[in-house]
Amino acid sequence: MVSMSLRDCKNCSSLPPLGLLRSLKKLFLEGINDVKRVGNEFYGQGCSKPFPVLEILIFENMPGWEDWYPYVGETEVRAFTCLIELSIKGCPKLLGALPNDLPCLRTLKIEKCPKLMLDVPNLVLTSITKISMEEVPCPSLPWLLETRNKLELSSLKSLDIRDVSIPDTLRDPSVADEVEFLPKWFSERLSGVESLKIKDCNELTTLWQNVVTLEHCFPVLRNLQILGCPQLVSLFEEEEEERQQQQQLEGPSFMMRLESLTLQLCGKLEKLPQRLHTLPFLVELNISSSPSLVSFPEKGLPSTLKKLEISACGALESLPEWMTHTNYNLEVLEVSDCPALKYIISPRGGLPPSLKKIKIFYCAMLESLVPEEGMEINCPSLESFEISSCKNLKFLPDALDNNLKNLRRFVIQKLDYLESIPEGWFSLPTNLREIRILFNEKLDVLPHILQNNNNFLSLEVLEVTPLRPSILKKISFDRFSSLTNLIIQDPIREEEDVEFSVFPIKGMSLPTSLIQLDLGGFPYLKTLCSMEFQKLTSLQELYISVCPRLASIPKEGLPPSLQRLTIDRCAAFTSIPEQGLPQSLLKLTIRYCPKFVSFPEQGLPQSLLELYVQECPILKRQCTKDKGKYWRLIRHIPVVEIDKRSIFDIGEEE
User: Which site from 146, 250, 371, 633 is most exposed, i.e. has the minimal number of CB atoms within 10 Å?
Assistant: First the structure.
């Protein structure tokens, strides 16, 4: 046996002699509530070498476990000689010591063990590369790291600290009980750490004080994450101005290999280190939920930066100017929930030409991406542009001719004051595959080229909602020869809406390439044009919602390729005609149609695998198991749900 899991053995008071299993490599123990001690009965009485090949040992949620006794046997015999990973989680009463000689251990995880004290003088972990600790007592982490000559810190590559504090013996006794800064030994002895994560250290105000010599801190650190430290003001106390200038001239080595920096849920973070721009390998910066951050360093960030993500920084008014005219490697810019942000591009700059993705959400004060209307952007590498829920945005920048030929995705949503889209976003040649224009209240016109050109050969997804019927009629949908998904919802009501009693309206043709069609919010729609729908030979999914006058589907039937049909919140919908459903149909959903009363008398398609009916009270009574009028028509269908309950579990209505 190579792997074993024991779970939820509620009445088990001792563990079996699993150490006798000589081939066991992975052991998982969880929810064994009554076990209080782990000792020789676990290793196996008289066993010559317990767990000889075990590599992974995991204990989880053992609330009664109090002591772990080391193996007692012959002098030269050791247990767990091949153990690579040890994980102990959710053992609130565990007091005792870990096995004291684990020469192959690489990963040690201890979480939510508030009484566990790692103070064993003879702890030997010569191969350790990753330590993760959460909610462990004060002495545990520093005692572990201070185990001289036994714990090879030079081999440690990853350190994850959560809700851990430093004892009085390793810091100034005048400071608070919680850690306010990391002690000097912390950075000096962890020279091999590549990944450092610090989380939920509630009193941490800065990582290092000035007394720490920063030039040699974490020389190989690549990934630094600081999460949930609400008192953190800065990463480290800035040196005196003269010292800073001298260090800049000499070229500092502080975290010089850093590639990724994440600062999250640091409520008092006011600034970033002034010298961050000197980090030659930094490619990713993520700052979120830091409402006190007002600005970026004056000298900016490294020109090597490729990804910048900023969210929930309520005091931030602008992005740094360096981003626009000194950074030629930035590929991803994501900004969200920054209510004080007024513009993205400074008056003196432009967007980096290297940008591939722009995503901006929930910036209430943002009026424009550029400081002046009519400014053009130069982003030949841009592939995805998405901006949503910026209610004060009034205009988009235009683009240089033929400058956006790599643009694949264009999404604008809930821009209440946007009145038009510059033609440059859709200039030819275009490789756009997805266009979504959603809920922009004042948008009265689409770019002329989008309405009338037949060169959108790559466009696959088009969603427009809401638009005036007069605009919809001008769009030549059939010219989008590769279009597979079309979503049209909530056209703005006008007197001429009466023309939309039939869809498609006269003169409107849909592309035969359509696979999915979604229609919603047509208040005057009464019927679907059978002739036009029969042309949609590739259509697989049809979704119709909130069409209060639609009573049925065409009696001539829907396309023979259709696999999924949904009718949702259509108050007048009453029935499905005899030949209405194709024999290819796999899934049928009827929701919130209170007048829907009848299925075809000849039955539903034999191909049907799923039927869902919700809030259709008349039909529900006729589908009662064994008794309902339509029971014989639906009992062969593998999945039938009425009001979110399987029909096969519903008895006769009371």
Answer: 250
98-155 pLDDT tens trace: 777 788 888 888 888 877 766 444 556 677 778 777 766 544 454 455 544 344 555 6
**Domains of the chain by range and CATH?**
472-653 (3.80.10)
Give the HSE-up count for residue 300: Cα atoms under 13 Å, Cβ half-sphere.
15
Are 358 and 333 in contact by the 8 Å Cβ rule? The answer is yes
The whole-number pLDDT of residue 653 equals 44
68 pLDDT above the threshold of 80: yes
Give burial (CB, 10 Å; 0-12/13-18/19+) of 479. Answer: middle
- Distance, CA of 149 to chain centre: 42
| Other Cβ atoms closer than 10 A to 76 | 6
Is the separation of the CB atoms in 489 and 517 below 8 Å? no
Residue 260 main-chain phi, psi, to 5 deg? -140, 130
Contact 624, 630 (CB under 8 A): no
Ranges of beta strands (E only) in 390-429 are: 398-399, 409-413
Angle at 387 between CA 385 and CA 392, to 5 degrees: 145
Contact 355, 331 (CB under 8 A): yes
d(CA 561, CA 575): 21
Q: With bands split at pLDDT 50, 70 and 90, how would you rate the model's confidence at 174?
A: very low
Q: Give the single-character DSSP code of 345.
A: S
**Calpha distance 482→633 (Å, rounded):** 38
| pLDDT at 175 exceeding the cut of 70 | no
Question: Which pLDDT value is given to residue 650?
Answer: 59
C-alpha 565/C-alpha 209 separation (Å) is: 65
Max distance between CA atoms of the chain, in angstroms, equals 95
The pTM assigned to this predicted structure is 0.79
